[in-house]
Amino acid sequence: MPASFCGNRRAVPALRDRRPRVGRAPPANLRHNSRQHPWSPADVAHTRRPASLICMPNYRRARVEGATWFFTVVTAQRRPFLANEHASSILRQSVAAALRRMPFHIDAWVILPDHMHAIWTLPAGDRDFSTRWGLIKAGFSRNSDLPHASASRRDSGLWQPRFWEHRIRDRADYNAHMDYSHYNPVKHGHAAQVKDWPYSSFHRAVRQGLYPADWGSTEPRHAANRGFGE
Prior knowledge:
single chain, alpha+beta, Alpha-Beta Plaits, four-stranded antiparallel beta sheet, 4 strands, disordered N terminus
């Protein structure tokens, strides 16, 4: 994702108060990293994280408090309107608005022209990802100038009405879905290397030292019985 979607590249002074934040608290080695949250600080400055949202200490570890979910969301009629600066800016604003109303942590997010993959960790005791996706999709549709697709059934509008969701079971499952999401642009032929695709949380992960910059030279291996909703 470009800077406008994945975060602000400028240094952001750390807040010194004890007010709760949106998303998980950062690990100890990232506590002063101004890029820990994938959205612009201006978008989330007035949001609050419920006290029940549990801090998870490490990247690529299974999350069970509140559960971690993998999603695939597809455009209506597979129309390729997502992977550009304008669409990503509108999507970022829609996600920020949803975060203010119903906080959650974004583990990964990768946009392709006609679909996107995301991994979220929800607050403890909360599994209402459907309302969150409804807010995001409706906000994007309302604020974009894209013509809606005409169809008599499920492929009208801008989005397919349903989406694929999968509850992450364990650490290996989490790793597989993180890797699949970030490698997806290469898998579909949109980029020669993972690092070349701008609409991806991979760049944030590299800045945090979570992936090497040259990761993805070969396709990650996944269990044959895994589904990813494509």
